[in-house]
Amino acid sequence: MAWYPGAVKMELQPESDQQPAITPDQFIVHSIIAPWTAKRTYEYWRDSTNLESHFGLGYEGDLGQFIGTETRADANYLANRRPNGHGAVSIETASNTSGTDPWTPAQIEELIKLGVWLHEKHDIPLQICPEWDAPGFGYHRLHPEWAKDGTNCPGDARVKQFREVVFPGIVARATGKTTTPEEDDMDPVDVWAYKGRDETQDAYAYLRGTAARLKAVEAKLSTLSTTGLTDAQLDKLADRVADKLAARLAN
Fold first, then answer.
1. 23 has which bridge partners?
2. How many degrees, rounded to 5, is the angle at CA 87 between CA 33 and CA 131?
C-alpha cells in the first residue's frame, strides 16, 4: 500500500488490512458537509460508520490519510473497485453544512499537491474522467455511478474551482509549466478568490464581464463614428473610456 508523504498517517483498522487491493487510476474529490479537521474526519470514519475515504482535508490545509492508496476505500460507490481491480482514490474535504462554500486557498493548494503526487506515483492520467470507469480526475457528482443515490457533492462553487483552478493547477504543476508559490510574482489566490463587489463572483468571471462591457463600448463608438464626430473627438472619447475602465479594474 502507498502512503502520501504530505499527509499525516491516521490508519483505519481493520479496513486498512482487510479490504481488497486496487490499482488506483482515478482521483475523486468530495465535500464532507461538515467543517471538520482531518483528525475529526478520521474519528468519524473510525467510530461512526463502516465507510471511509482515503484522505481527509480540513479548512486550514491539514491533510490526513486513512487508507493506503492501493487499498479500496468506500466513498465512491461503483468506482471504489471496478471488476478489473482498478479503483478510485477519494478525498473528503471540510465544507459548510450545506456544501455550498468554496475551498479555501489552503485546501486548493493541498488538492493540487496531492493530485500531482497521485499522477507521479500511480500514473493517473492528466484528464477529467470522460466516463465513470475511465481513468483520470473528477468530483463526486461527475458521474452517477460514483454516487449510489445521486449527489450534488462537492457543490457548485467547488465544481467551478475544480474545473478552473484545481485541475488546471495539477496539470500545470505536473508538467512543469508553472512556478512554485514562492516564485510567483502574484499570489494566485488573488486571481481566484471569491471577493470584491460581488462575493458570489470570482475574479475570472469579473474579467470576462469587463471584456463584454468593452465590446459594448466599442459598438457604441462605431455608431458614433457615423454621427458626425471627428476622428480627434472619437480618440478623445476613447481615451476617457479607457481611463475609466483602468480605474475600475484598479479598485
1. 86
2. 85
Give the 3-state secondary structure of residue 202.
strand
Q: Which residues of 76-103 are buried (b: 16+ CB within 10 A; e: fewer)?
A: bbbbbbbeeeebbbbbbbbbeeebebbb
Q: How far is CA 6 from CA 36, 111, 113, 156, 198, in A?
A: 19, 11, 8, 28, 35
Among 129, 140, 132, residue whose Cα is nearest residue 33: 140
Among 8, 31, 106, which residue's Cα sits nearest to residue 61? 106
- Residues forming a β-bridge with 90: 28
202 or 2, which is more confident: 2
Burial 21-39 (b: 16+ CB within 10 A, else e): ebebbbbbbbbbbeebbbe
How far apart are alpha carbons 224 and 218 in whole angstroms? 10
Instruction: Quote the cell numbers at residue 247.
Output: 480605474
| AA identity, residue 51 | L
Over 60: is that where the pLDDT of 187 sits?
A: no
Q: Give the three cell numbers for residue 176.
A: 512543469
Contact, 64 vs 10, CB < 8 A?
yes
Mean pLDDT, residues 156-173 taken together? 97
The percentage of residues in the chain with a pLDDT greater than 70, rounded to a whole number, is: 71
What is the distance between the alpha carbons of residues 81 and 83, in angstroms, rounded to a whole number?
Answer: 7
CA 49, 52, 58: angle at the middle one, nearest 5? 110
